[in-house]
Amino acid sequence: MLSFKLIYSDDYYLAIGQHVFPAEKYRRIHEQLLETKVADASDFLTPQPASDQDILLVHTSDYVHKLKTGTLSSQEEMQLEVPFSPELVKAFWLSAGGSILAAEHALKGGIAVNIGGGFHHAFPDHGEGFCMIHDVAVAIRRMQKDKKITRAMTVDCDVHQGNGTAAIFAGVRGANDLLPSTSASTLGGTKMRRNPPGDVFTISLHQANNYPPVKPPSSIDVDLPDGIGDDDYLGWLDNALSSGLRQFEAELICYIAGADPYKEDQLGGLALTLDGLKRRDELVFRVAKSRGIPVMVTYAGGYARNVGDTVTIHCNTVVAAKEIFTSSKSS
């Protein structure tokens, strides 16, 4: 039995047909965690869908109405990049409910993992990049509404910049500044840019030369060059976490643990290994635990040529959490 909860439903399955997004990954992650005895059935909680009121904490009433009534324009449906259906709406509402439940349990127990979610390309008034609803933002706003937290931090390690996250939580923006410890030429063009935060501090570590073409400013953006590997990636992540936590006192970290920085990913151009991705997760968890900050985990993207690799990467996130949060010696 784990010391923390995993949030999962068979209804997380996205009814999108043949698609680069491996809709079956959620079911396969659940099965693999059980088969390898990383978790047992009692470790899983089944979420309820988010309420419309929860979704409206982030998304506009006009957009929510269009989703609920199936009246998106053809352009809006095309922007989603997944085929619209009422079943898909239900899956996204459920995923948002899962992230709310994960946030609640993280605040109680130090960490919780939503075996889904992380749909960080959704904006208040539209969806894009396979993302209809921004479940992480909904969970944060619900925790703030319930007065369980005031300040949250998002740590986004998907290979694609979290443009929806940056737009939703935009603070008072000035000009982008390079951090004093970095330069434009460091690591072949890697840049760490910062902006003043609001009540949510957003960190995005992503491939610069990748989707989205327009990247709204996060509190910290780390723009990584093509082909970066494990050690350099982990160095930049450590730098970003240290800088962010010097500037901002987070009461909850929402970790978007994308599997797509993997070297064999079809939609990514970084070069992390399976081991490097697990070390990435361990770093985030170790930093959070050492500072006593609860962590809510969501999974975001992963498009490995071998779907089994994506499943393993996501399962390893749970393994890393188990190793860090069940060891009294970890820090």
Q: What is the helical fraction, as a range of percent? A: 25-40%
The main sheet orders its strands as 2-1-3-10-9-4-7-8-6-5
Oligomer: single chain
The total count of strands amounts to 10
| SS field, number of helical segments | 10
Largest sheet: 10 strands, mixed
Kindly report the average pLDDT value.
92
Cα Rg: 18 Å
Structural class: alpha/beta
* Beta-strand residue percentage: 5-15%
What's the end-to-end separation, in Å?
Answer: 21 Å
Shape: globular
Low-confidence stretches: 172-188
Entry keywords:
ten-stranded mixed beta sheet; alpha/beta; 331 residues; 10 helices
Topology:
Layout: E1 5-7, H1 25-35, E2 44-45, H2 52-55, H3 61-69, H4 74-80, H5 86-109, E3 111-114, H6 135-145, E4 152-156, H7 163-168, E5 177-178, E6 191-194, E7 200-207, E8 220-224, H8 230-247, E9 253-256, H9 274-291, E10 295-298, H10 307-325
Parallel strand pairs: 1-2, 1-3, 3-10, 4-7, 4-9, 7-8, 9-10
Antiparallel strand pairs: 5-6, 6-8
Helix pairs in contact: 1-10, 5-6, 8-9, 9-10
